[in-house]
Design goal:
The termini are far apart. This protein has helices at residues 10-13, 80-90, 106-119, 128-134, 151-159, 189-200, and strands at residues 24-32, 38-47, 67-73, 94-98, 122-126, 143-148, 166-169, 179-182, 185-187, 204-207, 216-217. The protein is elongated. The protein is α/β, with parallel strands linked by helices. 26% of the residues are buried.
């Protein structure tokens, strides 16, 4: 076990020297499933001056490739059309709402969760940054449908390393300064720039209100 202490995870390096040599270190590993139920727990104990306790697992830094079925831009986020029609068509089992405001809005979460429940799928509410930080930790069994509010939010995820290959533009409501692209999609220069940035990065970006409708490719 020589030199194993050199590969102690960064988050633990400051911990070991801080304890008296006569102490022991007790570590408990808990595995929690997607329903937040503890399915396995193990405990290990070693002297504090041991150099063989915290050994970096060879898989520790390995990032998985999340199973993202689709990312949709929708001003309304999750409603019947998204939470039922699109979710069932895609075969998703997890809706991930990536929006900085919704994470602090219990009422909106409750309404969206009700829609997700009607489709029998799970729903999570994350900030954009949290989505970027944890998306690669998604389990293989999770078939993820990401929903964002604006093209800028979708672009932030793409630029943050979220492996988005396909972006569906749904509802983008009219507002002063926006021009009509379709009856449900209105854009301004900022929207166009964000959408075309994703296109230029190789993302398939198109307008499609509901599954089965004609796809209108984004090209401004």
């Amino acid at each position: 076990m020589k030199n194993q202490v050199d590969v102690i995870p960064t988050r633990l390096k400051a911990f070991i020297p801080a304890v008296p040599k006569s102490s022991i270190i007790k570590a408990t590993t808990t595995y929690i499933n997607q329903n937040n139920v503890v399915t396995y727990m193990s405990t290990a104990v070693t002297p504090a001056n041991s150099k063989v306790f915290f050994v970096k697992d060879k898989e520790e830094n390995k990032m998985s490739n999340p199973h993202i079925l689709l990312t949709r831009i929708d001003n309304r986020l999750v409603h019947g059309q998204v939470g039922v029609t699109w979710t069932k068509t895609l075969g998703a089992n997890l809706i991930l709402v990536a929006n900085d405001n919704t994470v602090n809005d219990p009422l909106q979460q409750k309404l969206m969760k009700s829609t997700a429940d009607s489709s029998g799928v799970q729903i999570r509410f994350f900030t954009l940054q949290k989505t970027i930080d944890i998306i690669h930790k998604a389990a293989d069994r999770q078939k993820i449908f990401i929903v964002v509010k604006t093209p800028e939010d979708a672009l932030k995820l793409v630029e943050g390393g979220v492996p988005i290959k396909e972006v569906n533009v749904g509802n983008m409501h009219f507002a002063p300064g926006k021009e009509e692209v379709t009856k449900k999609v209105y854009v301004d220069e900022k929207d166009k720039k964000a959408l075309m940035s994703m296109v230029n990065k190789g993302v398939d970006v198109y307008i499609q209100d509901v599954p089965g409708d004609h796809k209108t490719q984004i090209n401004f």
